[in-house]
Amino acid sequence: MKISACYIAKNEERNIARSIESLRGAVDEIIVVDTGSDDRTKEIAAEMGARVLDFIWHDDFSAARNFAIEAAGGDWIVFLDADEWFAEPQGLRQALEEEMRCVPDLEAMMLLRVNLDEQGREFFRDRSLRVFRNVPWLRYHGQIHENIYSDRGKPCVSYPGGFFLCHDGYRSGVIGDKVVRNLSLMLKEIEKNGHPE
User: What is this structure's pTM?
Assistant: First the structure.
């Protein structure tokens, strides 16, 4: 079983090394799709062994993510944000193999994500779909708040316990910029497609 780790990134020199390092020994290839960094994100990723690809940003997270998937050669994809990392990367392959044994038609895993504040303290947990089969019918949809959908109906998803991601992208010094960016994209999408529930 070959596992590909994928990222989309822009100006993530603060985060990208920590995240890639957390995958060491757990994946077979790392692909970083850069959407216009003007810092050292690309250089750091390349130095750490990632294949770095350029993608012209056009306000569509799914398009960038799907571009990364098309470049991946693994049987499974682990798609992380640069501000996410595994506390115990060696557990990734083991967790995936265990889930596949229990659920033979497994297509995706919703991972537990521990959100940390500026002091590294947990302030809430959620689940995020971060691992899925590299098959043509599973792709990201949605210009913003994108998620994996299947052309074959609801995908078979598991919720493994005891294995989690860390995430510090909701720190107070970071969240404001994300809100401004996301609001702009949501307003554009509403203007284009209306306001679905």
Answer: 0.85
